[in-house]
Amino acid sequence: MAVTWHNEQVVNIAPTECGASCVMTALNMLGKDTAFFLLDYWNISYKSGLLFSSKSLRLLNLDYMYGVRFDYSLGDWADIEEWLDERLLLIVECRASRLAFFSRENLVLEDNNVISHYILLHGREGGSRSFLVTDPIAGYEGAMTWEELSRASVEPGRVLAFRLKDSHSSFLQPPGKELFCSAVARNGKLYKSMAISSFARDLERSLQWTPDKRNKWLDSNKITITSIIKLRNAVWNCCCKTDLFDGRHRAEGAAQVAQITKTWTLINFLLIKYGRKPEGELVHALTGKLELVRRQELDFLNSLEELAHDLATD
Question: Could you give the C-alpha distances from 159 to 92, 147, 206, 218, in angstroms and in order?
Answer without folding.
Answer: 7, 11, 38, 32
